[in-house]
Amino acid sequence: MGVTKTDFMRGMQCPKMLWLDAHKKEERIIPPEVQERLDKGNEFGDGAMGMFGPYKETTTLKENGWLDYATMLEKTKAWIEDGTEVICEASFSNYGNYCAVDILRKVEGGYDIYEVKDAPQVEEQFIKDVGFQRYLALRCGVKINRCFIVYHGEDENNPYVAEEVTTKAKEYSRWVDENIWRLAKIKKQEDEPNIQPGEQCNCPYECWYEKYCKKPN
């Protein structure tokens, strides 16, 4: 596989992080509080799937517990052809690059993308994320009308708040195109990138390889 959405976002934070994900994943150290936050985010995302009523979810696992990307891509293609109104984890691949859209909603003349984040407000990093998804979906021949970030509002009885970010997401198209192929080469290269610890270790997210990168040679 080329570059996934996660690969891209982590690689833009630090190319070495991307390389380590591909070649030395065993060096990861995920703090318990971070894992708890990730789990809560997954729960929030699962709850958001029904915000537009009935939906179909592509998520499929292999016997070893890994995601079955091929089947998810096949389901997405079939359901788009069938006119399914809401597809969750809609999967797209172009030249090996891959993403799964949290919610793909059919609207007049195309589809809207909804990226779900368990956060109190929209952050620029989220818009970059949905910009990557829009980039790949368009290259797969799917017309994308609007892009939204769904964040965690104050009303716990109905916490899903959608904010449109279409204009900003479009602005990231060239940025994605300029970097996706560069990151694909870094992911595949044999040599570990020589990048010293710095601001990128904690911005915008805490790196799980910080201990590895700071250990004495």
Care to give the gist of this entry?
This protein is an alpha/beta fold and 217 residues long.
Name the features:
217 residues, alpha/beta, 20% strand, globular
What does this structure look like?
By secondary structure, this protein is of the alpha/beta class. The chain has a single domain (5-214), classed as Lambda Exonuclease, Chain A. The chain is 42% helix and 20% strand. It is built from 8 helices and 6 strands; from the N terminus they run H-H-H-E-H-E-E-E-H-E-E-H-H-H. The protein has helices at 5-13, 15-23, 32-48, 69-82, 124-139, 166-171, 173-188, 210-214; strands at 56-57, 86-94, 97-107, 110-116, 144-152, 160-164. Strand 2 (86-94) and strand 3 form a beta hairpin. The longest helix is centred in the first third of the chain and has 17 residues, at 32-48. It is globular, with a radius of gyration of 18 Å.
Note the total helix count: 8
DSSP strand count: 6
Query: Can you list the strand order of the major beta sheet?
Result: 1-2-3-4-5-6
The domain count comes to 1
User: Uncertain regions: pLDDT < 50 for 5+ in a row?
Assistant: none
Question: Secondary-structure map with pairings?
Answer:
Elements: H1 5-13, H2 15-23, H3 32-48, E1 56-57, H4 69-82, E2 86-94, E3 97-107, E4 110-116, H5 124-139, E5 144-152, E6 160-164, H6 166-171, H7 173-188, H8 210-214
Parallel strand pairs: 1-2, 4-5
Antiparallel strand pairs: 2-3, 3-4, 5-6
